[in-house]
Design a protein that fits this description.
- The chain is of the alpha/beta class and 574 residues long.
- It folds into two domains: 145 residues, Chitobiase, domain 2 (2-Layer Sandwich), CATH 3.30.379; 263 residues, Glycosidases (TIM Barrel).
- Strands 1, 2, 3, 4, 5, 6, 7 and 8 form an eight-stranded mixed β-sheet that branches.
- The longest helix is centred in the N-terminal third of the chain and has 19 residues.
- The protein starts with a helix and ends in a 17-residue tail after the last helix.
- The structure holds 2-acetamido-2-deoxy-beta-D-glucopyranose (NAG) (6 copies).
- The site of one 2-acetamido-2-deoxy-beta-D-glucopyranose has 5 residues, from loops.
- One of its GO terms (molecular function) is beta-N-acetylhexosaminidase activity.
């Protein structure tokens, strides 16, 4: 009762605010030229009304059987493993049991209820209660998530072939994880909080793209282990499967190396508090593994490496300034540029250091960066000039190519046979890499469709990030723009489209730290999550908005501070 009164009050406050803001809204719409106006309904009540018990991202196939639904009696509910299992599955069942039980925290009474409420029993479509979800894994578990993992599953809730039963079937443990997430989203409160319901549904699901990532930058601002773990939870709740960890950059070096402890000792913002210990890293990798998420570290070189400098003598190029006295040699100006590519000992260092990285992170992929190399310091340095003349190099791009080529060879020489990911410039500047041992990370906002065409025409596999730089914020609901971007929407053959293996959302942290990382990222990142998982024809913003509204409320109810996504509104059951 108390909860319902509260909700009514919230509605009236919200609509009062919505009314006073109308003029401002229309002004801003004009200014930003936003064309999602239809979506922005004004007047009494929330702008978008949430759905009830609809999943995000939208499954590939989902059939509903009329208005049919079953009531889940939480006090009796359990998962029943009917075939293979392993620790990862057992832990996931515990986790999802807690998530289900946590749903609608206000109604302890509802959770304990054994007898289905009369109101539910007389509702059209009532099909009895569902106390068991059978979990049928058809093979033994794989240990590490990987680039070809099978994430498909089928979920049958009171279908004609399985009346009054709930069954989750998957070929692999990864499919079971994804299916459990879907099931946990289908279970919802009835609109008036008299029971937990699940609609009679047949879901047959698999991802459209195999690579669906979130990039977090932990150099511009340090993000604590707790935030990274919470982000992994949120990724799992959006079926994303790769954590692209941009660990270090110019500003700080928070990764604690065993072989070179002075890297974080001298390069972290604070070597005691702003570092990831080896144990932290192991814990993050394990937490991700249990959720079917790969952890791909990025050690961006040769640019973006100022924080490496203090620990490794002569690693960075010395920059020079011209002497003011005519005829004098230039002199070092005390600043440093990208890694000095002319020094053999730098490659020996990189081989040892990256060897440690490869031992630490079990994923087959390693991100080598290679973006935004500033040539001005190389240009100023007379030794670099002499080296280039000696090597018959006339362009600084060739020097960058020389460096990246050697780096890629180092990575290829590791017995673990890693695949390198590089930012697009590496390929734009003509570095030639064996096609199966590299993924090209397209990130520049301009002409990304043309770039995808170019990269795949050369036969490289590609990842698209350009559309999803979520650190960039703007007035209004920006997710429809993210939602509209399709990684296969470029001019090219079917074979070229196949080479796009996915994409990701990036959160660079110049203006982001623990206080706002998760709320800025979610649920805005849910838009690319659905784009990368669901079928290409799931693209109607009007249809998606109420489902996203529910998803945001769901994440909030599960305890994550995620921001409003559709303008004025409110969440029930929080
Ligand atoms: C809501 O629940 C009450 C009883 O708790 C019931 O009388 C009413 O019909 C229900 N309304 C709907 C729309 O389900
Ligand atoms: C268990 O898995 C095996 C192997 O895939 C399969 O043949 C069998 O039908 C499954 N058992 C049940 C009860 O579904
Ligand atoms: C230094 O002077 C030379 C000759 O005047 C010029 O070509 C070069 O661009 C200058 N370099 C810098 C870094 O200013
Ligand atoms: C540079 O060019 C000269 C003249 O063509 C040639 O003799 C020399 O071997 C070249 N050096 C390298 C490193 O390719
Ligand atoms: C794509 O390739 C064409 C032909 O080489 C080139 O002119 C164009 O600039 C490239 N586009 C991008 C975005 O790099
Ligand atoms: C593809 O992108 C163009 C803009 O470059 C856009 O107009 C078009 O609607 C997009 N098509 C799809 C299917 O997303």
């Amino acid at each position: 009762m108390i909860a319902r009164v509260f909700v009514l009050i919230v509605v009236s406050i919200t609509s009062a605010l919505a009314n006073t803001n109308n003029n401002e809204v229309s002004e801003s719409l004009k200014i930003s030229g936003n064309n999602h106006r239809n979506h922005f309904v004004r007047g009494l009540g929330p702008h978008v009304r949430q759905t009830w018990g609809e999943p995000w991202p939208e499954p590939q196939r989902r059939t509903l059987y009329g208005e049919n639904f079953m009531v889940v009696r939480m006090a009796l509910f359990r998962f029943k493993v009917t075939n293979f299992t392993c620790d990862m599955i057992d832990l996931a069942l515990k986790r999802y049991y807690d998530i289900l039980l946590g749903a609608g925290a206000e109604s302890q009474k509802l959770k304990m209820r054994l007898v289905v409420n009369q109101a539910e029993r007389v509702t059209t479509g009532y099909r009895g209660h569902l106390d068991v979800l059978e979990v049928n894994l058809l093979s033994s578990c794989e240990y590490l998530p990987h680039d070809n993992m099978d994430e498909s599953y089928k979920l049958k809730i009171d279908t004609p072939t399985r009346p009054n039963r709930g069954v989750l079937v998957a070929n692999s443990n990864w499919g079971i994880l994804r299916g459990l997430e879907t099931f946990s989203q289908l279970v919802h409160h009835s609109r008036n909080h008299s029971a937990f319901r699940v609609k009679s549904t047949f879901v047959q699901d698999f991802p459209r793209f195999s690579f669906r990532s979130i990039l977090l930058d932990t150099s511009r601002h340090f993000l604590s282990k707790e935030i990274l773990l919470k982000n992994l939870d949120l990724m799992a709740m959006n079926k994303m499967n790769a954590f692209h960890w941009h660990l270090v950059d110019d500003q700080s070096f928070p990764f604690e190396s065993k072989l070179y402890p002075e890297l974080s000792g001298k390069g972290a913002y604070n070597p005691y508090t702003h570092v990831y210990s080896r144990q932290d890293v192991a814990e993050i990798i394990e937490y991700a593994r249990l959720r079917g998420i790969r952890v791909i570290p990025e050690f961006d070189t040769p640019g973006h490496t100022q924080s490496w400098g203090p620990a490794v003598p002569d690693l960075l190029t010395k920059c020079y300034q011209n002497s003011t006295i005519a005829g004098r040699q230039p002199v070092p100006d005390g600043t440093f540029g990208p890694i000095d590519p002319t020094q053999e000992k730098n490659y020996r260092f990189l081989k040892t250091f990256l060897g440690e990285v490869v031992d630490t992170f079990p994923d087959k992929y390693l991100h080598l960066g290679g973006d935004e190399v500033d040539f001005s310091c190389w240009k100023s340095n007379p030794d670099i000039g002499a080296f280039m003349r000696n090597e018959n190099m006339t362009r600084y791009e060739s020097l960058e190519e020389y460096y990246m080529q050697k780096l890629v060879e180092i990575v290829a020489s590791f017995p673990e046979k890693k695949v390198s990911i590089v930012w697009q410039e590496v390929i734009d500047n003509g570095v030639e890499i064996e096609k199966d041992s590299v993924l090209v990370n397209v990130w520049k906002g301009w002409h990304y469709q043309e770039e995808l065409g170019n990269v795949t025409r050369m036969g490289y596999r590609a990842l698209l990030y350009s559309c999803w730089y979520l650190d960039m914020i703007s007035w209004n609901n920006d997710w429809p723009g993210y939602y509209a971007c399709d990684p296969q929407n470029f001019t090219g053959s079917a074979g070229q489209k196949e080479l796009v293996v996915g994409g990701g959302a990036a959160l660079w942290t110049e203006f982001v730290d623990e206080t706002n990382a998760l709320s800025r990222l979610w649920p805005r990142a849910s838009a690319p999550a659905e784009r990368l998982w669901s079928s290409a024809d799931v693209k109607d913003v009007e249809k998606a908005a109420p489902r996203l509204e529910e998803h945001r409320c769901r994440l909030l109810r599960r305890g994550y501070s995620v921001q409003p996504v559709n303008g004025p509104g409110f969440c029930e059951q929080v």
